Amino acid sequence: MTEHILFLTGKLAEKQLRQILANMEPEFSYTVLEMGIKVAALMNADMIGRRLKDTHGATRIIIPGRCPGDLAALSTQLGVPVERGPEEVKDLPLYFGKKIKQSDLSQYKTKIFAEVVEAPFLSVAEILERAEYYRSNGADVIDIGCQPGRPFPHLTESIQALKQAGYTVSLDSLESDDLIAGGKAGADYLLSLNSKSLWIADEVASTPIIIPDVHGDLDSVEDTIRQLQAKNRAFVVDPILDPIHFGFSESLARYNTFRERHPEIEMMMGVGNLTELTHADTSGINTLLLGICSELNINHILATEVSPHAHRAIREADRARRIMYAAAQHNGLPKHVADDLLTVHDINPFPYSREEIEALAAEIKDPSYRIQISRDGLHVFNRDGLHTAQDPFEFYPHLQVASDGGHAFYLGVELARAEIAWQLGKRYAQDQRLNWGCAVQAGETKIDLHDFKPIGTTQKKPDFSE
User: What are the two backbone dihedrals, phi and then psi, of residue 113, each rounded to the nearest 5 degrees?
Assistant: First the structure.
């Protein structure tokens, strides 16, 4: 049975929607229904429930992406599944492509060890608080970092408290006494052992993370590997990732060489030497490193959030590993899987050309201002005309705003967003916050600017002279 989709839209978008569907040459049949409203985004689920009397034999109904309301209740009422489409009608081809190749981002292979670097300086309660933060951002293992020469009298208590709270725990120390104490307290992993400290593995049940005896010398880890394999012990090898200009390229080659020598041995990569020690956006660095981990089957990374610019590194690594895993399952590129790591740019930041915006502006018959962007700059329009600029201050002589200041405030915020989006190459949609992907913490406070947007008020130019 061929799928038949009912697309609901508004008057301004109807013509464009029909053209896009015709150009797609879809495998499904469809009906486009204009709902008696000018702007499609002003529809809501209740309005659709009241107005839609005929579903035209649809097997599913697609409504505009910004349409609010309870779609589950609407689906029950209409007897047809209702879903939100993309926010921009021009994204329909991509939307249907993503539907066909939908990925499951609940799965991943690479475990994230999130290091509490300053653990000796924190109380047990503070370590537990940090652990919960890391776990909420995707960490699988909480790594307790020891500081050389810094006493850590509550080491055992901290590990026991973490284990009682249900965490998987690793301990990172150069001191054998710390490692033995941590292992006996219940640490699941110990970082890092070599041939000289391998005896510690015989004292505790913790899984050892192995490093070369001599930095950069893979041959120096071979005997350690043989000993552990002879004892049938689980272990992980860390060839050590070096910072840029301090052996980075050579260290990447080491990871590749080790994987060629040992296709099945588990490996770790300490990504913090790149994210912390490179002043660049960490989302891109994490994406690249997790891509390398995916190719080389590196299933453990050690990550940190010490530097202020790296304060989303755990969350970014979590998204990167899921995206890379999903792409690998389809034997494809890590494109169009999820946009969480496009924190600064967007896939298609300018869906409409200046000419298309001019055509839309010509249809507007009311005084409310619309704001859009194209490659040419910012566009502001209402029934009185269209104005284009690259600097929002250039609009000031042309805009008439409400005397109470509310409309001026609203336009100021929206034009600032539009300018940022245009400068960076991000998608801008009026009345929507800019999407910063996983660079913005989930649950942060949001302000609804609809409260500052008076509709139908008498507008006049504000006086900024005072």
Answer: -95, 110
